[in-house]
Amino acid sequence: MSRLLPQPAGIPAPRPSLHSEPYWDGCRRHQLLYQRCAECGYRGLGAFTVCAQCHATSPVREASAGMGSLYSWTVVWRPPDPSFRVPYAPAVVRLDEGFWMMSALIGCEPEELHDGLRLAVEFHPANGEITLPYFARRGGARSSRHRRSREPVSAIGFLGSAGRRARQPEAGQHRGGYHGGLGGPRRTADL
Ligand SMILES: [Zn+2]
Questions:
Q1: pTM of this structure
Q2: Does domain 65-173 have CATH number 2.40.50.840?
Q3: 54 C-alpha to center of ligand 1: Å?
Q4: Would you place residue 181 in the very low, low, confident or very high pLDDT band (cuts 50, 70, 90)?
Q5: Which of 10, 35, 86, 124 could crosslink 59 through cysteines, CB 3.0-4.6 Å?
Q6: How far is the CA of 57 from the centre of ligand 1 (A)?
Q7: Which of 166-174's residues contact partners 24+ apart within 8 Å by CB, and which partners?
């Protein structure tokens, strides 16, 4: 049994900045907030004041329904900090609203993960102040593969300002990347 679970309270947690504080306040209320450009509709998780697509300066903050699909992931067995419970699975999730985020998967075995797995956000406390968004599997048919996007993947979801606390997925596990047909998770020796 190696079921993926939320991390125990007390792990190293992000420290909100002036710009990310509304996001973390939303997480504490179990709301996943993102920003949408009022001019062109560009959506992003990370706080921005200038649209990356049209350079407008009129972003609005909206709440996501918290539903998405699994795009890429890896399974970590050797944590960067001993307070982390292993295994855990950092993942890139494509939210139904069209933005991307890094998070971690919970509620299933690593072997059950697959490209396009339907996911729903869940919130669990990292400490008394920070609540982290995780994604758990939801029932339903395997969805079709999403088109690759050039949009940057925000690391704010799980990594926050402390990017060293979790890792990007291994390059070989990006769908359509170096090994387009690569299947499920694998034990990664150097993590
Ligand atoms: Zn725009």
A1: 0.74
A2: yes
A3: 4
A4: very low
A5: 35
A6: 8
A7: 166/76, 166/80, 166/90, 166/102, 166/104, 167/74, 167/76, 167/80, 167/90, 167/191, 168/90, 168/102, 169/72, 169/73, 169/74, 169/90, 169/91, 169/92, 170/74, 173/72, 173/73, 173/74, 174/72, 174/92
